[in-house]
Design brief:
Layout: H1 13-21, H2 25-35, H3 39-45, H4 67-81, H5 105-113
Helix pairs in contact: 1-2, 1-4, 2-4, 3-4
Length: 125
């Protein structure tokens, strides 16, 4: 019987392991990140031997469940499956002074100046 004590962020370890064993990775990943948005980082840097693995009932037999490995695998898999949110083009016009200067500015200026855009209102989104 897995216990939850020992985890400072109160990760529902038994539930995550159950979902993992049932191959319900998306649900396990969502549960981890809902509980702790830094799950992928914590799976690598937390002191597991003093926390979850140190409090594991299997540790009495000398063979604790290595939840850090499970958490890292689920977190990495879950993050790899997420689609990044891409902002829609804003369509705003920015003054020339606010645009970053690039090597292509001279090309852009020559193209846009021939299209009737004043230098202060050239589109940059």
């Amino acid at each position: 019987m897995c216990q939850e004590r020992g985890c400072p962020v109160h990760t529902p370890i038994p539930e995550v392991i159950r979902l993992f064993k049932e191959r319900r990775m998306d649900e396990a990943g969502a549960l981890l990140f809902e509980n702790n948005p830094m799950s992928a980082v914590c799976s690598l840097v937390c002191n597991h031997s003093n926390q979850c693995e140190g409090n594991c009932v299997q540790a009495r037999r000398g063979n604790p469940v290595h939840f850090s490995s499970i958490e890292h695998y689920i977190s990495s898999t879950y993050l790899d499956r997420l689609e990044p949110e891409r902002p829609e083009p804003c369509g705003k016009v920015f003054p020339q002074a606010l645009r970053p200067v690039t090597d292509s500015d001279s090309i852009l200026n020559s193209v846009l100046s021939g299209c009737g855009f004043p230098a202060s209102e050239r589109p940059y989104c």
